[in-house]
Automatic annotation (TrEMBL):
Enzyme Commission number(s): 5.1.3.2
Highest classification ranks of the organism: Bacteria, Bacillati, Bacillota, Clostridia, Eubacteriales
Gene: galE
CDD domains: UDP_G4E_1_SDR_e (cd05247)
A GO molecular function held by the record: UDP-glucose 4-epimerase activity
Gene3D superfamilies attached to this UniProt entry: NAD(P)-binding Rossmann-like Domain, UDP-galactose 4-epimerase, domain 1
Organism name: Faecousia intestinalis
Alphabetical list of InterPro entries matching this protein: Epimerase_deHydtase, NAD(P)-bd_dom_sf, UDP_G4E
Name assigned to this protein: UDP-glucose 4-epimerase
Length: 335
């Protein structure tokens, strides 16, 4: 099948493109490269031996979307393109609502004109908000406390549910990611945010590489076993494979359906740092700092639905995630 991947040059998108190509699908990437490098397309080709069609454009651009759907018979869309920084979204909420919602609406309208009826959406565990019990289950209410980024995910899920209700035969698979980390075993693909990383693993990797002097652990006075926050970290390659299962599901079902993509296990900040040092043999100096506003003490996924309905289960270990994060940073340093 031919799959349009918006944001396909990004961290999760590029790993998903690799898995799609290696599974025999054709891939068309739409990415404006606002938060990714064009060299990722070359790396996807190096890994798979196949070069996806690539359009450098904004996913809101109806003319480009129409060009893509006219030039290619797209069987399904995987929609990653969007702004994704929780803190930034609090400062520029209109940009987040405009970008994340308009790109989704534009895609759905072009899909309708082209007769494309399968949509896989990059959602987030953030939609569960601060008050749901742990582990999160897909039937729980979704609402977000304070960040517009999270609200865009809740709103887009609702847009997709309403559209599916009004459009018999359309499928929307809502994939709620927990904390994806790691990189491709080749070392060619990984999490390479612009500037100083907001997220834990890329920050750890850059400290290990000597690019940042130390890690600040945001609080060790949480109600958790070691006082640091606990998250459900999953390997980005496992997450990418979950998208292939979602596409298979979309080919056989209609309507909107949400799935948690996590491991079902929580790992603390200190545990992740220590596992990284053990797995790589590299020291990661750290200090304990104040809590980061908005952080929840702990969250992890109930994975029963993805395991039983999608037939997907994360397989890689936390040590694998650490080693592959480190391999990526080392390969970037060599370039
Ligand atoms: C993990 C833990 C921090 C950096 C975010 C988004 C979420 C999703 C995944 C998009 C927390 C601690 C971090 C640092 C630290 N993204 N930390 N020092 O916040 O769970 O989730 O990314 O969907 O929407 O909210 O991930 O990696 O930022 O933080 O101590 O320098 O690491 O306090 O406890 P988070 P994270």
């Amino acid at each position: 099948m031919k799959i349009l991947v918006t944001g396909g040059a990004g961290f999760i998108g590029s790993h998903t493109c690799v898995e799609l190509l290696e599974a025999g699908h054709d891939v068309v990437i739409l990415d404006d490269l606002s938060n990714a490098s064009g060299t990722v397309i070359d790396k996807i080709e190096t890994i798979t031996g196949k070069r996806p069609a690539f359009y450098q454009a904004d996913a809101k651009d109806r003319a480009v979307l129409h060009e893509i759907f006219t030039a290619h018979r797209i069987d399904a869309v995987v929609h990653f393109a969007g702004f994704k920084a929780v803190g930034e979204s609090c400062h520029i909420p209109l940009a987040y609502y405009r970008n994340n919602l308009d790109s989704t609406l534009a895609l759905l309208e072009e899909m309708a004109q082209a007769g494309c009826t399968r949509f896989v959406f990059s959602s987030s565990a953030t939609v569960y908000g601060p008050d749901n019990a742990i582990p999160y289950v897909e039937t729980m209410p979704t609402y977000v406390a304070t960040n517009p980024y999270g609200w865009t995910k809740v709103m887009i899920e609702q847009i997709l549910r309403d559209y599916c209700t009004a459009t018999p035969g359309f499928t929307a698979v809502l994939l709620r990611y927990f904390n994806p980390i790691g990189g491709h075993p080749s070392g060619l693909l990984g999490d390479d945010p612009n500037g100083i990383p907001n997220n834990l693993m890329p920050y750890i990797a850059r400290v290990a590489a000597g690019q940042l002097d130390k890690l600040t652990i945001f609080g060790d006075d949480y109600p958790t076993p070691d006082g640091t926050c606990r998250r459900d970290y999953l390997h980005v390659v496992d997450l990418a494979k979950g998208h292939l299962k979602a596409i298979d599901y979309a080919m056989e079902h209609t309507g909107a359906e949400a799935f948690n993509l996590g491991t079902g296990h929580a790992v603390s900040v200190l545990e992740l740092v220590n596992t990284f040092m053990e797995a790589t043999g590299v020291n990661v100096p750290y200090v304990i700092g104040p809590r980061r506003e908005g952080d929840l003490p702990q969250m992890w996924a109930d994975t029963h639905k993805a395991e039983t309905i999608l037939g997907w289960k994360a397989e890689k270990t936390v040590a694998d995630m650490c080693r592959d994060s480190w391999n990526f940073v080392c390969s970037v340093k060599k370039q």
